[in-house]
Amino acid sequence: MNNKQHLLGMTMDEFYGVTGECGLPRFAAKQIADWIYKKRVSSIDEMTNISVANRVLLSEKYDVGRYNPQECQQSVDGTVKYLFRTENDKLIETVMIPEDDRATLCVSSQVGCKFNCLFCMTGKQGFNGNLTTNEILNQIFSVREAEELTNVVFMGMGEPLDNYEELKKALDIMTADYGMAWSPKRITVSTTGVTPKLKRFLDESNAHLAISIHSPEREQRLSIMPAEKTFPIDGVIDLIRQYDWTKQRRLSFEYILFDNFNDSLIHAKELAQMLKGLECRVNLIRFHAIPNVTLKTSTKEKMEAFRDYLTKKGITSTIRTSRGEDIFAACGMLSTMKNENN
Question: Minimal CA–CA distance to 262: which of 229, 284, 289, 293?
Answer without folding.
Answer: 284
